[in-house]
Design goal:
By secondary structure, the protein is an alpha/beta fold. It is built from 12 helices and 21 strands. The chain binds adenosine monophosphate and zinc ion. The site of zinc ion has 6 residues, from loops.
Length: 434
C-alpha cells in the first residue's frame, strides 16, 4: 500500500514545481526569522529573490553541523518557543548536543506522515502490530516511529530498547508483525531468539524497519533468516527530522527520499560541487516544509548516491543508495581509506562467523594498525585450532583483497562482543592513549 499516492506518485515535473514553491517560501521565512541564515546569505551575496529555479539553490552556502552547535540551544529555531511542542537532541561524540525543535504541524503533518509512508514502504498497514524497539527519549527513533505508526492505524507497542528476552516474549504473546529497531539491535534480538530456542516460525514478525546506523546486505540476510522477516532499510537524522527521511520499498536496494519535504543533493565533499545522479558523494538536505527547525543545504556527512530513475513500485521520489559510511567515520590506515561498512561486507560473507565485530585501532610508531575482532558462530567454535587458524587466514586474505591493506584478524569466542541495544559501537580507538 502507498500511504499518500498524491504526493508519493506525483508527476516529477509537478513535484519540482511544488519543491520550488516550498523552497522559496521557506527561504523567504528564514531570511526574516533566523538571523544566522540572513547573515550567512548576505555574506555570500544571495537573497531569497535569487531563487528562480531549483538549481539556484547551489548559490546558497551550506549549513554545517558546527553551525548548529554554535547556535546551541535555540539559535536556529524559526518559530517562537511557545509554538514548539517537542524537543529532541542528537548526542554527538564531543561537546554539546545538537538540539532540534518541532511545532505541532511538524509532528503531525510532516513527521508522522513520512513515518506512515515509511511503514507502508515496508509493507505495513493499519492491521499491523508494530513493536517499536527504538529508544524513547531525546533520540528521535522511538517517538518518531511511534506517531507515524499511530497515524497509519497500527497497534503500536512502545517497547523502547533493552531487556531483550522480555521483548521477545511480548512480541510472541502480542503477535507483533513489524519490528522497528536499529539493525544491530535486530541482530541482538535474533541472537537472543536463537538462545531461547525460538525459530523464525515461532516469531510472528513479518517485516523489519531498520535504520539509524549503517548496516550491510550480509546483516540483512542474517536477520531475515533468523527472524523470518523482510528487512527494510530506513534512513533519517535528527537535524532533518529523525527517521522518516527515506525508506526502502519492496524493490530493495535503494531508499525513496520523501523529497516533497526533504530536498536532497549529492556534493563532492572536498569541493562542495553538486554531483550528477549516480555519482557517490556527501548527502545534503534542505527541509522544504518544516517550521520550527528548518535547515538549508545541511551537510549530513553521509555518503551515498542519488537516482531519479522511476521505481517499479510507482513512487516517483528520488532514491538514495545504501549509506556506505560517513565522511567522519572513514578510517585512514597507512594512507588507505577504509569504511567500517566495507569490513562488515567482507565479514558477513563468511558463514562461520557472526556479524558481531569490533575494529580496534592502535598506533605503532607512526603507523596506524587495525585489528578486526570478530565472533565465531557457536556451531563452528568447536572446530579444531587448525581449522580456526585457517579461517582467520581466509578472512585476512579476503580483507586484504577488498581493502588493499593488511589488517590483523582475531577470532573471539561466541558472545564476547558486547551486544548493542541502540547504535552499535564498532570502532575502539586506542591511538590517543599510546
Ligand atoms: P542521529 O541523528 O543521531 O539519529 O544519527 C543520524 C545518523 O545515523 C545519520 O546521519 C547516518 O549517519 C546514520 N544513519 C541513519 N539511518 C541510517 C541508515 N539507514 N543507514 C546508514 N546510516 C544511517
Ligand atoms: Zn519503490
Amino acid at each position: 500500500m502507498i500511504w499518500d499516492p498524491k504526493h508519493e506518485c506525483m508527476d516529477i515535473e509537478e513535484r519540482r514545481a511544488l519543491q520550488l514553491r516550498r523552497l522559496r517560501e521557506q527561504v523567504a521565512r528564514l531570511w526574516v526569522n533566523v538571523p544566522f541564515y540572513r547573515q550567512k546569505w548576505e555574506a555570500a551575496g544571495v537573497t531569497p529573490d535569487d531563487l528562480q529555479s531549483l538549481d539556484d539553490l547551489r548559490r546558497f552556502p551550506f549549513t554545517e553541523k558546527d553551525d548548529l552547535r554554535k547556535t546551541y540551544p535555540f539559535g536556529m529555531f524559526a518559530t517562537p518557543l511557545e509554538e514548539v511542542v517537542r524537543i529532541h537532541a542528537s548526542s554527538g561524540t564531543t561537546g554539546k548536543p545538537i538540539v532540534v525543535g518541532y511545532c505541532k504541524s511538524d509532528v503531525t503533518d510532516i513527521w508522522a506522515e513520512t513515518i506512515a509512508r515509511t511503514i507502508c514502504c515496508g509493507g505495513g498497514t493499519s492491521q499491523d502490530i508494530l513493536h517499536n524497539a527504538y529508544g524513547y527519549g531525546l533520540f528521535t527513533g522511538g517517538l518518531g516511529v511511534h506517531y507515524g505508526g499511530e497515524l497509519l492505524g497500527c497497534t503500536v507497542v512502545p517497547m523502547s530498547a533493552g531487556n531483550t528476552q522480555r521483548q521477545l516474549m511480548m512480541m510472541c504473546d502480542l503477535g507483533a508483525t513489524i519490528l522497528a529497531s536499529t539493525p544491530s539491535y535486530a541482530l541482538t534480538i535474533a541472537d537472543a531468539a536463537e538462545e531461547m530456542g525460538l525459530g523464525p516460525d515461532d516469531i510472528p514478525l513479518k517485516a523489519g524497519l531498520f535504520g539509524a546506523e549503517p548496516w550491510s546486505e550480509g546483516s540483512r540476510q542474517v536477520v531475515e533468516e533468523k527472524l523470518g522477516i523482510s528487512a527494510h532499510d530506513i534512513y533519517g537524522l535528527t537535524e532533518i527530522i529523525g527517521p522518516g527521511v527515506a525508506a526502502e520499498c519492496e524493490v530493495k536496494g535503494m531508499m525513496h527520499v520523501f523529497d516533497d519535504h526533504f530536498l536532497p543533493e549529492i556534493i563532492d565533499p572536498e569541493t562542495g560541487e553538486v554531483l550528477p545522479d549516480g555519482e557517490t558523494g556527501e548527502l545534503v538536505f534542505t527541509t522544504l516544509t518544516k517550521r520550527a527547525f528548518p535547515v538549508i543545504r545541511f551537510r549530513t556527512r553521509d555518503i551515498t548516491s542519488l537516482t531519479h530513475e522511476p521505481c517499479p513500485c510507482g513512487r516517483t521520489h528520488a532514491r538514495i543508495a545504501r549509506i556506505t559510511g560517513r565522511t567522519d567515520d572513514m578510517l585512514i590506515i597507512r594512507g588507505v581509506n577504509v569504511f567500517p561498512s566495507q569490513i562488515e561486507d567482507v565479514l558477513t560473507s563468511f558463514a562461520e562467523i557472526e556479524p558481531q565485530y569490533q575494529l580496534v585501532l592502535t598506533r605503532k610508531g607512526r603507523l596506524d594498525q587495525l585489528e578486526v575482532q570478530v565472533e565465531v558462530a557457536p556451531r563452528f567454535f568447536s572446530d579444531t585450532i587448525g581449522g580456526l587458524e585457517q579461517l582467520e587466514q581466509r578472512i585476512t586474505e579476503k580483507l586484504y583483497s577488498t581493502l588493499g591493506i593488511s589488517v590483523t584478524v582475531r577470532l573471539v569466542e561466541p558472545k564476547t562482543i558486547e551486544r548493542s541495544i541502540g547504535k552499535a559501537k564498532r570502532i575502539i580507538d586506542l591511538r590517543e592513549e599510546e
